[in-house]
Automatic annotation (TrEMBL), chain A:
Pfam families: Amidase. The active site is at residues 126, 201, 225. GO terms for cellular component: chloroplast stroma; glutamyl-tRNA(Gln) amidotransferase complex; mitochondrion. It comes from Trapa incisa. Gene3D superfamilies: Amidase signature (AS) domain. PANTHER family: GLUTAMYL-TRNA(GLN) AMIDOTRANSFERASE SUBUNIT A, MITOCHONDRIAL, TRANSAMIDASE. Signal peptide: none annotated. It is found in: Mitochondrion; Plastid, Chloroplast stroma. One of its GO terms (molecular function) is glutaminyl-tRNA synthase (glutamine-hydrolyzing) activity. Belongs to the amidase family. GatA subfamily. This is Glutamyl-tRNA(Gln) amidotransferase subunit A, chloroplastic/mitochondrial.
UniProtKB/TrEMBL annotation, chain B:
The gene is GATC. The keyword rRNA-binding does not apply. Belongs to the GatC family. It catalyses: L-glutamyl-tRNA(Gln) + L-glutamine + ATP + H2O = L-glutaminyl-tRNA(Gln) + L-glutamate + ADP + phosphate + H(+). Signal peptide: none annotated. Allows the formation of correctly charged Gln-tRNA(Gln) through the transamidation of misacylated Glu-tRNA(Gln) in chloroplasts and mitochondria. The reaction takes place in the presence of glutamine and ATP through an activated gamma-phospho-Glu-tRNA(Gln). This is Glutamyl-tRNA(Gln) amidotransferase subunit C, chloroplastic/mitochondrial. The keyword Acyltransferase does not apply. It holds the Pfam family GatC. It is found in: Mitochondrion; Plastid, Chloroplast. It comes from the Eukaryota. GO terms for molecular function: ATP binding; glutaminyl-tRNA synthase (glutamine-hydrolyzing) activity. It comes from Trapa incisa. It is an enzyme of class 6 (ligase).
Length: 549, 146
């Protein structure tokens, strides 16, 4: 049935994301589980509006002009969520208080009180980010019914600005995976082709934004877990500089690499969300106390750009990311993206990062080593699931054996090996030395260029099950992203084209890498790139008939 | 389990207690100075393949994960494959390169070392404990018979 859906080229006539979906929100509609994909595409097309694609800004305009209520907006997202969720499985938990929270915003508006800049914005939260009033399992059985006693700082800030947490999104267990097949609970599908993976580990967060089940979402990125799923699902993914966003309340996987990141259907949305969650937090000593710029000032409309809005911007195309091993379709789309940047006034130069290929093994040594330590807190004693035993060591061993999935067990064991006495210098220390080399080579490349570009992943989304039993094949897919985590730099992934595959083609993401704490430049360039890119809009077939932006 | 002590014996060199203390948000390694020379000596190994292969049962014991015999059989070749692949870093010339503990952007911004009150939800924390008898977290016996 998906094959009957229109080609992406025809999607560009739909624009406005936020019209309430009257047909979908009927209270008499039967359970979503019986709805088929074809029902989703039979909706009449919403009226066309300007190509401004920020859902957050559009929600704000609608609320402040009293054109729509927060309740109407929330209902339209929730009905879309109910219709699409049986096909996607993006969520592990959906909040039951969304409409009540929306009503509170409407009450405030009716009293003419000020409401925060994220008021009425439905935000999906990756399940490894703690929420006090919802389960937070990290995709793991070992935290089966866990409800944290606190909100993560990022979640707290979103709520303080009026954002509504719509639910907890599916993920590879503790972030260890690149497909979301590693969740202990369910496999999430890619909205562009439900037989394919959404990427991972923030696959649920990316699929949810792609299918417009929520406006934006929070993910986490240890080695590419925001950027690769953003690329696979055709959305914008932003990995901030290490230290830009507090990690308090993020379940630690590899603490020296972990960052909370943002996903949105436009650069503006990802940037506005980043602005909301950034800044120093006394609960995370690694969070930077630098000021946070107002990213929103850069999200101006396309008619303000002028002929060559990026005149003089030096862009380095990383040579090693276009080597063999990268799909020809992906390479070609990225070259087209480079040409588009050139048309906008950039100068494009190839740059070489000779240590690039060392990043992958170094990353996996560091991540598995740190995870073997970080995950030692899951022992069945203070929280999580416990297996009763006669003796304490058996309680630990059995609780962990029944709570962890295979990939997590293997990474803990690899990390235990790499950290063992005698092997430490050979693995962990060497990987840390490689990190120094990689940081320096990025520094040199970014001294000569304003930004660097590369594909976000060596391929578009592949089929569910395709790489499940081959760890090295799956790890190899992270080659484009892990180096950026090792260097701690910010990177923005935005959809830039399509390759063949699935019913209507599969989206490909362009990665833009910037200097530390220079998210502002990435967002500015990304926004101009996005607003001037010709061709089909990145709205997946699953929801193309009734929504677009 | 908090911090853990990894003790391994056998292989090319005799292992000693080597305590890795990883706490809170970033890692710190404590190498007992007495053994530093012994530990350093193995960094002269030039290829990953000359390090002994992983003993998965023993690693699982160290990591406190009770593996089934089938899991040991299933995991061993996969872990071996990845560790062999890790070994490629042995051939890289890194002699004079300082290790980077993390991508250190700013240095730590630690607060002053004075007591402060933090929000604390004692009830919520206690309700998450699988086995609790006021005022204790209950666990089975710690010492085994041998």
């Amino acid at each position: 049935m998906l094959s009957t859906i229109q080609s992406p080229r025809s999607l560009s006539r739909f624009h406005l994301p936020l019209r309430p979906l009257k047909a979908l929100s009927s209270p008499h509609r039967s359970a979503a589980t019986t709805t088929t994909a074809s029902a989703l595409i039979d909706q009449s097309a919403p009226p066309v509006s300007s190509p401004s694609s920020s859902q957050i800004l559009s929600i704000r305009r609608s609320l402040l002009s009293r054109e729509l209520t927060a309740t109407q907006l929330a209902e339209s997202y929730l009905s879309r969520l109910r219709l699409t969720e049986p096909h996607l499985n993006s969520f592990l938990h959906v909040s039951d208080s969304v409409l009540r929270e929306a009503q509170e915003i409407d009450d405030k508006l009716s009293r003419n009180e000020d409401v925060g800049p994220l008021s009425g914005v439905l935000v999906g939260v990756k399940d490894n980010i703690c929420t006090a009033d919802m389960p937070s399992t990290g995709g793991s059985r070992i935290l089966g019914n866990y409800r944290p006693p606190f909100d993560a700082t990022a979640v707290k800030r979103v709520k303080e600005l009026g954002g509504i947490v719509v639910g907890k999104t599916n993920m590879d267990e503790f972030g260890m995976g690149s497909t979301t097949e590693g969740s202990a609970y369910k496999v999430t599908s890619n909205p562009w082709d439900v037989s394919r993976v959404p990427g991972g580990s923030s696959g649920g967060s990316a699929a949810a934004v792609s299918a417009r089940q929520c406006a934006v979402s929070l993910g986490s990125d240890t080695g590419g877990s925001v950027r690769q799923p953003a690329s696979f699902c055709g959305v914008v993914g932003l990995k901030p500089t290490y230290g830009r966003v507090s990690r308090y309340g993020l379940m630690a996987y590899a603490s020296s690499l972990d960052v909370i990141g943002c996903l949105g259907s436009s650069v503006a949305d990802a940037g506005i969300l980043l602005g909301a969650i950034s800044g120093h937090d006394r609960l995370d000593a690694t969070s930077s106390d630098r000021g946070v710029p107002d990213f929103a000032t850069h999200f101006t409309s396309a008619d303000t750009f002028g002929g060559k809005p990026l005149e003089g911007l030096r862009v380095g195309l990383i040579r090693e990311t276009l080597d063999s091993g990268v799909d020809a379709g992906v390479t070609s789309v990225v070259h087209d993206a480079a040409s588009h940047l050139e048309e906008l006034g950039c100068t494009i130069k190839e740059v070489s990062l000779p240590s690039f290929s060392l990043g992958l093994p170094a990353y996996y040594i560091l991540a598995s080593s740190e995870s073997s330590s970080n995950l030692s807190c899951y022992d069945g004693v203070r929280y999580g699931s416990q297996v009763a035993a006669e003796e304490l060591n058996s309680l630990y061993g059995d609780s962990r054996a029944s709570g962890f999935g295979a990939e997590v067990k293997m990474r803990i064991l690899m990390g235990t090996y790499a950290l063992s006495a005698g092997y430490y210098d050979a693995y962990y220390k060497r990987a840390q030395q490689v990190r120094t080399v990689i940081r320096k080579s990025f520094k040199a490349a970014l001294d000569e260029n304003d930004i660097l570009i590369s594909p976000a992943a060596p391929s578009a989304a592949y089929r569910i099950g395709e790489k499940k039993n081959d760890p090295l094949a799956m790890y190899a897919g992270d080659i484009m992203t892990v180096n950026v985590n090792l260097a701690g730099l910010p990177a923005l992934v935005l959809p830039c084209g399509f390759v063949h595959g699935g019913p209507v083609g599969l989206p490909v993401g362009l990665q833009m890498i910037g200097a530390a704490f220079d998210e502002e430049k990435l967002l500015k360039v990304g926004h101009i790139f996005e607003q001037t890119l010709q061709g089909p809009k990145f709205v997946p077939p699953l929801v193309a008939g009734e929504v677009a932006c | 389990m908090g911090s853990k002590a990894l003790v391994m014996t056998g292989g090319v060199i005799s292992m000693t207690n080597h305590i890795f203390s990883f706490k809170n948000s970033f890692s710190r390694t404590i190498i007992i100075p007495k053994y530093r020379r012994v530990i350093r000596s193995c960094s002269t190994v030039s290829s990953g393949s000359s390090l002994p292969p992983p003993d998965v049962s023993r690693l699982a014991e160290t990591a406190r994960i009770s593996l089934t015999p089938n899991e040991v059989i299933e995991f061993t070749p996969k872990i071996q494959q990845v560790i062999d692949w890790f070994g490629q870093l042995q051939d890289v010339e890194l002699q004079s390169v300082e290790p980077a503990l993390r991508a250190d952007m700013e240095g730590d911004s630690l607060r002053a070392d004075i007591p402060k009150t933090f929000e604390n939800s004692r009830e919520a924390m206690i309700s998450a404990i699988p086995s609790f008898e006021e005022p204790y977290i209950k666990v089975p016996k710690v010492l085994s018979k041998e």
